[in-house]
Amino acid sequence: MRARERMLSGALETSTATRGPDGRGTAGPAAAAGSPAPATPGTTAPGVPYPRVREAVLTSWRRCRLHAVDADRLHVPHVEQHIDWDSRFLTAAAPVLDRVEQLLADCTAGVVLADSEARVLSRRGGDAAVVRLMDQVHLVPGFSYAEEAVGTNGIGTALAERRLSTVFGAEHFAGPLQRAACAGIPVRNPLTGRQEGVVNLTCLRQDASPLMAAVVRQAAADIEERLLDRYSGKERAALDAFLATGRRTSGPVLLVTPTLRTANSEAVRLLEPQDLRQAGALAADLLAAPAGSRRQRVDVTLRLASGTDVRARCTLVGPPGRPIGCVVGMTTPEGRETPGTPDRTPGTCTGTQPPPPLPALLPGLAGRSPSWRAASRDVASACRQRLPTRVVGEAGVGKLALVRAAHHWVRPRNRLHVLDLTAHQDATDLLARAEEALRDEDGTVVLQHLEAANRELMSCLETRLAEARRNRGTGPWVAGLYTVPGQGPVPAAAPTGAAPPALDSAVFACTVAVAPLRYRPEDIRDLVPALLARHGRGGTVSCTPAAMQVLTRCDWPGNVRHLSRVLQQAARGRRQADLQPHDLAPECHSSCRRTLTPWEAAERDAIVRALHDTAGNRDAAARQLGISRATIYRKIRLYGVTVAPARAR
């Protein structure tokens, strides 16, 4: 507990104190001279010995501080809508969990299964006290126990460390979890080596035992064995051929079977998503070829999105008449650069040199989530190939920012034409402006608010674009920005049935979906500094970890535009400041799942301001507002207000 307090205060980061031979902290020379010396990791103040903290726990605590995890309160995100309840992993683990539950029938521990993203899938066993504790800390199916959200714990820390993790009592970073002890170990797919999830054993801290590690280790081994059994003999043979090919070559290797697709790390690192799809389609076509004309091995040359030509060898696995899969190995022809090797600066092209590889994230954009980076690469690739692209997403997610960044990366010296379809009431005038923009052969034409286009307009645009390409053999890159209603799923492609003209039109060869900000909260930590730099008027306005934690908990119905407006309001009039939670708008401290009326929003804002004025004291806030204690507690629950009691500001 003392080590945790010193970690939260930052005292464990630097140290000069010594450690005694028994592993306990002792006072150093500075303390003997009368001046205090800071403690080493695992020691306390000089002269106050206690057993040292394990290095794995200290490392996890440091990660929690970097993620600004709240040490006093528990915020467990609910992610049930993203869980695959029919996954192969959950099906294989069910009998093992049943057996462990029977084994623990007379014990006070419960077993928990989570997937590879620390989302709880199942919970079994435990006496009444353990079940009550699990319910209080939301250790139930549908909630995420990732380390960056809830701090050090047996599930998230095991995934982060990729090995067995035991966390006992006060070793938990979040205070509400310190009543528990847990042991978790990752479950790996025996064939692919990927982490499928975690099996975790949880009990009260006074009931902890070293045997917890042995129980979860055996349970994980049993689940891995059942995962292997669920693969058919054909799938195992195909995977053996895939692994054998990967050992013989250092290049990208892919495997395609009727039920399984996988790629090695080189393929994931060097190839873009469309390259993987192209190679997968080639293998699928070879598998689907008629038996009489099917060849066991085919060598072809593929043109990657980066412009590099690679030689792909497609080899069927299994009997000639009944193939069970296809392995695709890629090599670079002699004298060519390998995929992913830059050969020129952006925006230049000399001779027949291939263009540079696409960056993981386009310059000028901020974010780290896989979906945002994938959208960045897909849009940049479409811009490079001049594929008419439809970018779909909610208002304010950054559709125009993606297109601008792709344009400035691929063709920085050319013009960007932005046409707002809602700003032109006359369709004739809009078509004339579109036709003029399409004459710019090397430019980019952006059609904003594509959802407002009717079928006649889309037909005319399709005709203009076809003429431009037919007359010159090429043309500008055309991107349409389609806005879908907020607080709803983003369609990844044109829906079936009666689709809006802009979604049903043949103008756009590909569609890129941009996920809303509430589905990629990890991007907020990168967006906040970038937006503050934009609104800080040259100053150094930053965000404290406590304020960042408040921002990451918000749903942001207006997405990045909403976040930018809140930060602009908080940074107004400041040039050098650290934003605190009380500097943020009252709406950031509320997690109400419905739209509030103007009166309810004003009531919520008054409660949030009163709580900030009274340092989180609800009784004092009720007296300041002139309402009863019961009323303010009811309103706090109704509006989902989350204002923690403040320490010294």
Automatic annotation (TrEMBL):
<dbReference type="InterPro" id="IPR002197">
    <property type="entry name" value="HTH_Fis"/>
</dbReference>
<feature type="compositionally biased region" description="Low complexity">
    <location>
        <begin position="27"/>
        <end position="47"/>
    </location>
</feature>
<dbReference type="Pfam" id="PF25601">
    <property type="entry name" value="AAA_lid_14"/>
</dbReference>
<keyword id="KW-0547">Nucleotide-binding</keyword>
<feature type="domain" description="Sigma-54 factor interaction">
    <location>
        <begin position="365"/>
        <end position="572"/>
    </location>
</feature>
<dbReference type="InterPro" id="IPR027417">
    <property type="entry name" value="P-loop_NTPase"/>
</dbReference>
<feature type="compositionally biased region" description="Low complexity">
    <location>
        <begin position="338"/>
        <end position="352"/>
    </location>
</feature>
<protein>
    <submittedName>
        <fullName>Helix-turn-helix domain-containing protein</fullName>
    </submittedName>
</protein>
<keyword id="KW-0067">ATP-binding</keyword>
<dbReference type="InterPro" id="IPR009057">
    <property type="entry name" value="Homeodomain-like_sf"/>
</dbReference>
<keyword id="KW-0804">Transcription</keyword>
<dbReference type="InterPro" id="IPR002078">
    <property type="entry name" value="Sigma_54_int"/>
</dbReference>
<dbReference type="Pfam" id="PF02954">
    <property type="entry name" value="HTH_8"/>
</dbReference>
<feature type="region of interest" description="Disordered">
    <location>
        <begin position="332"/>
        <end position="353"/>
    </location>
</feature>
<dbReference type="InterPro" id="IPR058031">
    <property type="entry name" value="AAA_lid_NorR"/>
</dbReference>
<feature type="region of interest" description="Disordered">
    <location>
        <begin position="1"/>
        <end position="50"/>
    </location>
</feature>
<keyword id="KW-0805">Transcription regulation</keyword>
<dbReference type="InterPro" id="IPR029016">
    <property type="entry name" value="GAF-like_dom_sf"/>
</dbReference>
